[in-house]
Amino acid sequence: MKIYLDNSATTRLDPRVLADMKPYLTGEYGNASSIHYMGQNNNLVLEAARDKIAKILGAPARGIVFTSGASESNNLIIKGVMFANSEKGKHLIVSAIEHPCVLQSARQLIKHGFELDIAPVTEAGLIDLVALEKLIRPYTVLVSIMAVNNEIGTIADLKTIAKLVHDKGAYFHSDIVQSIPYLDINIEDLGLDFASLSAHKFYGPKGVGIAYLNPKIKIEPLIAGGEQENGTRAGTYNLPGIVGFAKSLELVYQEKTEHINKVKELRDYMWERIKTEIPEVYLNGSLSKRTPNNLNILFARIEGEAILMDLSMKGICVSTGSACSAHNLKTSYVLQAIGLTLDNLNSNIRFTLGKFNNKKEIDYTVDALKKTVTRLRKFTPIKK
Amino acid sequence: MSLNYTKKTVEHFLHPKNIGEIKNADAVADIGNMVCGDQLSFSLKVKDGRVADIKFLSFGCASNIATASIMTERVKGMTLEEAKNYKWQETVDELGGLPQQKIHCSILASEGLKKVIEEYEKKQIDK
Fold first, then answer.
1. Helix pair angle (A359-378, A304-313), 10° resolution
2. Cβ–Cβ contacts within 10 Å for residue A257, how many?
3. Is B16 on the interface with A (CB under 8 A)?
4. How many Å from the N-terminal Cα to the C-terminal Cα in chain A?
5. Do A303 and B64 touch (CB under 8 A)?
6. Closest approach of B1 to chain A, Cα-based (Å)
7. Omega before A181 cis (within 30°)?
8. How far apart are CA A310 and CA B60, in angstroms?
9. Exposed/middle/buried for B118, CB within 10 Å: 0-12, 13-18, 19+?
10. CA gap A46, A33 in Å, rounded
11. A193 class by beta-carbon count within 10 Å (0-12 exposed, 13-18 middle, 19+ buried)
């Protein structure tokens, strides 16, 4: 049995998306920048995709820049905005629970003379607005707060934060990669100056994303050397990917209600079974202010990588913030930021559901999980 | 990240040998890795200067469990001196290799083994 409950890592490509992409992988392979008919026909396809995405996200089409994914978009925005606007100031703020590509981009800037502050979160995993407000200075250029956290699924109140940031005269960026389709994203209405997305998080292809860039704000390109995207991002247009991005975004919002209801019902059912049938389990992060696809659970006294591997042997794919699973052997800084104590930091499993999951899979998973937890607790040296 | 365990490692993770605590053990020792948070707890029974029995408890990843399992299997029957000198490389070789970032698990197991034997030896001197 193959059960995939790691949909925040990536999702399965929707076959309808693949069908739309296929022509541009095969017969219609012209470079969308070429001026012959094969290029120009594809240029029309490219711009139609951009328009479609812009419309869904409530943003001007000229602000949509195609990238290789949200990691590139976040790098471009954090570094590009800070470098291009250094006459405005050299200070930026990112939250403590940002994705590593945001945190590392911000830390890289310190070497170039920029100042960084980290905005704390509450135990529920939500941005501490009072603390954030105090961190913003007159010369703060950019504040970056993710819409939905990738580990615990907690949701930031983007509209309120955007207003707070703008009132203080700074620009606002949000990594919205985990929010689709769980939040209604209208970039202009929310007040986002910058946003980042990857298609593979919502049943689209890997290797394609967008950066939304407010056309009124200067930015320094990260990848220079071509006229694509008005010089903001060089590189041959990934047309199959871009077509796939547009299609997957369109489908996921068209089918949003059905999708959310299904995922939420499965998630709630799963958590209900786990908390009643398995002792010593705790939910990490707020239940009410999290996306309906996410469960991040602490299984006391046993180690996360062992749980993951035991489930993996039974065909179940999940993830963990345990140090043993990390290349650098460091525990999850997100779970640290929400106040988990040292002895609990290595005992967590993230289950992230998606539209292709069903109740049978959830039942199989919980049944397997019960056996896994019982087995591992039999020989843990940590007493109750 | 590459985290492919060998068949033997998986086998020892799923069906670990020498799990538990020895009643009336001659020595016990706990060891933990400050970096990754893994913990092992060993109990030892000695007869005629040899490892008569050894068991362990684990709070750790698949390779922590597998390394302690195979190591305890191998050192049973050894003299205390031989057991103390059992190298972590031998554990790794017995498992057919470990992913690079999991080598430290085998080192932790060896350190725990050494610690429990030293605990035993200390007790003999105190007697």
1. 130
2. 10
3. yes
4. 34
5. yes
6. 7
7. yes
8. 12
9. middle
10. 10
11. buried
Q: Tokens 């940002």 identify what position?
A: A98
Please judge whether B35 and A323 are an interchain contact, meaning their C-beta atoms are less than 8 angstroms apart. yes
Report the b/e string of A265-284 with b at 16+ CB within 10 A. ebbeebbebbeeebeebebb
The amino acid that residue A109 corresponds to is L
With contact defined as beta carbons under 8 Å apart, do A21 and A243 qualify? yes
- The label of the residue with tokens 């998306």 reads A17
Q: What ipTM, to 2 d.p.?
A: 0.95
Mutation target vs B (from A298, A303, A344; most B CBs, 10 A cutoff): A303
B10, B14, B30 member nearest A381 (Cβ): B30
Please tell me whether residue B54 adopts helix, strand or coil conformation. strand
CB atoms within 10 A of CB A222: 20
CA distance B79 to B125: 18
| Of A305, A313, A345, Cβ closest to residue B61 | A305
Please list the residues that pair with B29 across neighbouring strands. Answer: B42
| Nearest residue in A to B56, CA atom | A379
The owner of tokens 């430290």 is: B104
- Catalytic residue flag (residue A317): no
Mean pLDDT by 10 residues, chain A (384 residues): 96 98 97 97 98 98 98 98 97 97 97 97 94 97 97 96 98 98 97 98 98 97 91 95 98 98 98 98 93 97 96 96 79 91 92 98 98 97 91
- The span from the CA of A158 to the CA of A365, in Å, is 34
